[in-house]
Amino acid sequence: RGTYRFNGEGPGTVDLTASLSRAEARAVWRYLPRVVNTDARHWVRDALKAGTASEAKLVLKGDLAHFPFLDRSQGQFLVTVKARDVVLDYAQGWPVISGIEADLRFEGAGMVVEAKRGAILGARLGPTRAQIADFDAPVATLKVKGVAEGETAEFLKFIAQSPVAAQIDQFTAAMGAIGKGRLDIGLAIPLAEAHLPESKVDGSYTFLANEVTLDPASPPLRQVNGTLNFSEKDLRINEIAASFLGGPVKIRGSVQAGRVLVTTSGTIAVEEVRRRFDLALLDALSGTAAYRAEVRIRKREVELVVESNLVGITSTLPAPFAKAASDVLPLRIENVTLPTAAQRSGAPIVREQLRATLGNTLGMHLIRRKQGDERVPERGAIAIGRPLGQVPERGIALGISARLVDVDSWRNVWRRSKNGGSSGGSSLPPLTVEVKADELVIHGKHYNEVSAGIGGAAAQWRGYLNAREANGSFQWDGAGAGKLSAHFKRWRRPEKASEQGSPTELLDELPALDIVVDDFIVGDHHFGHLDVQAHNDGGIWLLDRIVLSNPSGSLTGRGQWQVANGNRTQLDFALESNDVGRLLDRLGYGGTMRGGNATMNGRIGWQGSPAALDYATLSGDMALEANKGQFLKLDPGAAGKLLGLISLQGLPRRFLLDFGDVFSEGFAFDRISGKMTVSSGLMRSDRLQIDGPAARVVLRGETDLKRETQRLAVSVQPELGGSAALGVAVVNPLAGVATLLAHRMLQNPLNRVFASEYLITGTWADPKVEKLTGAKAAPASTP
Predict the structure, then answer these.
(1) Which residues are within 8 A (CB) of 326 and not within 5 positions of it... i.e. 6 or more apart?
(2) Is residue 753 scored above 60 in pLDDT?
(3) Rounded to an integer, what distance in angstroms lies between the CA atom of residue 29 and that of residue 47?
(4) Half-sphere CA count of 403, side-chain side, radius 13 A
(5) CA–CA separation, 730 vs 688, rounded Å?
(6) Is the pTM here over 0.90, yes or no?
(7) What is the average pLDDT across 555-560?
(8) Coil, helix or strand for 393?
(9) Centroid of chain to Cα 253
(10) DSSP 8-state symbol, 265
(11) Is the model's pLDDT at 234 over the cut of 80?
């Protein structure tokens, strides 16, 4: 109701009041007088997307020539609306405010929205005021001041869906959060689209015991408390307190010259790192250490720098990475996002450059490709104990220089990890490794003055080894159970050797073998050409072929090692020599025999691996046949111990029966023959016979290979048709048999005796020879 008067001049005078019992927010703009700024009317049209009013009132009073009555004494223009469920799209590019319960007031040249409640995304909106002070200003501006409380994840959405994201270069795009917080925000947004870039933002967000993840691949920040301030141009973190990887951390940050800079300082706990990352290396670390980190972000390019002196961290890793908690070992890590390249498909390729140094111990330079949440190495260089070289065009180059490189210890580190240290080897680039070490330990063998290298990818590897003990090349084929092929010009069994791991672990790791050694050496003894072929068949390691040969003889054999049924090795062998004397000379027992040819074959077995013959459990059968040789006169201790061709262990040291008055130059033989059985380390012969021009010698009895004792009955029968007197000089034939089998050899001439029956007891080092002249020798029994 109201009145309108027109006196013929101007627009007239009005006094009008109106009320609506129901109104749609989308229609409010239609009730604004046309004299209102067009941009303002269009903003009201576009901003009020939904909502209803239960009460709307209009007051229009005064000379319309003064509309919109900025001076209240000249008149009044007032529209008030009590609205609910309003959706306000207040500015292009900003998240809408929904569920608004508010009072809308259009008065004079402006508008005010007093919201009691509402929501921005999933955050609950508290008291909020939106105001346009002057619709008719040259650039009408909307100002919003409000508070919202809710889940931090919704706040991150607010940033991501607003122009703030572009201003801070999507800094929060990859962030995730669990927990609640409070948003205080002030906006000043020009209504003219051309002036939107001039929008002003002044806001802050307070974290309340949140868990925040900066990147899906990074550990979360826990118990995050503090305030993040932001505007249309910058972002500021005065100080946020949190817990990171088991230790407290302080975070500060800002945007400087278009670059986001975040600094952190805190303490890291190895135990928490171990829970987060399943890395074998972490099992050998313990303690806590302080660190400082800096993150710089510009146009999606991220640069991370982490520094720590690692004081407080204890490492039991193999050399050179072992350290006590008090040791200072400076660590520096730099990770930089490289310029983005495009694939053929058009999708961008994001790469990172990782540099790291660990004192003078380690240097690393890697180029990695981001693949989902993972980083995949493409190429790089790693140096341990030497200067860092150039990054190759393809693959990773690892260079190691050290006094000691213990490969077995590193393998044990990986074996103890939950996943065996695996990290998806099929995705790794080609790898080349160069090693220079004073000492290298691998598979229990110690090599000295080492220069070695290996290179390959996936299941195919090639390498070389040059050391004091070995010179040759090798190849690894990882197909199936794996196969190691090698050809060495020289291989000397290392003097120091150790066997690590359980029998099952050792057997499981043994691949198929095809090994050729031109000059196989043990100590100073050159055994000759070695050819070994073997394969692993479901937990049984089958020795398909072994040949050890030189100009004086050869050893051939085959066998198996089985852990499941008692961890036992079985070997069938045949030993042949066309000159036993020269064969013994080659093996370091010069002057023990002249000439002679021999064959020995048999089947033996023992508890344990093929590389560790166990005399206490040795069992089997052997047969010996030798012809046309002569045992030479031996000085005490001249022969020593002969390391066996198979077990590389010694057997009997010395027995002495000397008929020196008649055979002072040694006992010649035409034939030696006999069979021997071994049971649990006891070697027995019921008849080992030596036939010579001067006498026949028959031995019966047992030798304990473990205790190095014997009980032998020796019968000497002179050659009655000859001119020689009664008596011979003979080395214990059983020990001689063991020598030919590569166990032990006899030493020293026999003590002077003049009877035909003897009993030999005692130890190999100090044998006791009892003369039983004219009587039957006591039967031999277990020593």
Answers:
(1) 311
(2) no
(3) 10
(4) 4
(5) 13
(6) no
(7) 93
(8) coil
(9) 34
(10) E
(11) no
Three-class secondary structure of residue 416 per DSSP: helix
On whether the CB atoms of residues 146 and 127 are closer than 8 A, the answer is yes
Continuous segment of H or E residues that includes residue 591: none
Instruction: Supply the pLDDT for residue 547.
Output: 95
708: CB partners within 8 A, 6+ apart = 652, 653, 763, 764, 765
Among candidate residues 768, 731, 734, 585, the one with its CA nearest the CA of residue 651:
734
The Cα-based distances of 411 to 39, 384, 505 in angstroms read 74, 17, 12
The contacts of residue 375 (CB under 8 Å, 6+ apart) are 217, 352, 368, 369
The answer to whether residues 240 and 250 touch, using CB atoms and an 8 Å cutoff, is yes
**Residues 215-238: b if buried by 16+ CB within 10 A, e if exposed:** eeeebbbbbbebbbbbbbebbebe
Token pair belonging to 320: 């050179």
Residue 210's alpha-carbon distances to 153, 223, 226, 242, 526, in angstroms, are 10, 5, 10, 9, 72
Q: Nearest to residue 149, comparing CAs of 122, 176, 181, 119? A: 181
Of 350 and 300, more confident:
350
Please, which residues have CB within 8 angstroms of residue 346's CB and are 6 or more apart in sequence? Answer: none
> Which whole-number Å values give the CA distances from 225 to 154, 163, 214, 239, in the listed order?
17, 25, 15, 9
The yes-or-no verdict on residue 194 having pLDDT over 70 is yes
Q: To which residue do tokens 């993840």 refer?
A: 213
Mapped to the 3 state alphabet, what secondary structure does 317-339 carry? CCCCCCECCCCCCCEEEEEEECC
Count of C-beta atoms within a 10 Å radius of residue 524: 8
Residue pair 255/270 in contact by the 8 Å Cβ criterion: no
The 10 Å Cβ neighbour count of residue 264 is 20
H helix or E strand, kind and range, residue 509: helix 503-509
Rounded distance between C-alpha atoms, residue 622 and residue 572, angstroms: 10
